[in-house]
Amino acid sequence: MIEISKKNPRSVFVVEDDLELSSVIDRILISIDPTLILEWATTAEEAIRSLVKRAEENKETPYDLVICDIFLEGARNGLDLWKFCHTHYPEMKVIIISGIDQEKLTTLLETGEKAPLFLSKPFSVGDCSNLLEKLLIES
User: Fold this and answer.
1) How many whole angstroms separate alpha carbon 41 and alpha carbon 107?
2) If DSSP codes are grouped into helix, strand and coil, which group holds residue 134?
């Protein structure tokens, strides 16, 4: 478990349309830090609206971490959301999760784009927990 800050609780935004997987990720996050503020969306469009609203309210990086699946319902996908975050909130950490492999991810990106942080499904709870804990400690 990471050190808990009572002044500024960390916030994580999970964008996943598989509610079962979202629940697993939530449990992992709460085991890392029970004081985390968790928010959810199931589409990239909904996520972008939430990011903009939260940024306007907080006047800073909206979340400490965004976890996003690539393939979501709606017109936009997780890579569109990652690009939006990278453009508007470059300091915010975003991790992409997907059942595709790293090579396929590279082909989905535009030429010259730096690949986002990536966790391939299926992942072990331990691997997921270690990565998320590392990212939250760095924030």
Assistant:
1) 26
2) helix
User: What's the alpha-carbon Rg for the chain, to the nearest Å?
Assistant: 14
Strands (E), the chain: 11-15, 37-41, 65-69, 93-98, 117-120
Percentage above 70 pLDDT, the chain: 84
Between CA 93 and CA 34 the distance in angstroms is: 20
55-72 pLDDT, tens digit per residue, is: 988 767 899 999 999 999
**Cα(80)–Cα(21) distance, integer angstroms:** 21
Residue 131 CA to residue 64 CA, distance in Å, equals 14
Domains in the chain, start-ordered, CATH in brackets? 11-138 (3.40.50.2300)
Q: What are phi and psi of 14, to 5 degrees?
A: -105, 120
Task: Report whether 80 contacts 52 (CB < 8 A).
Answer: no
Q: Is the distance from CB of 69 to CB of 78 less than 8 angstroms?
A: yes
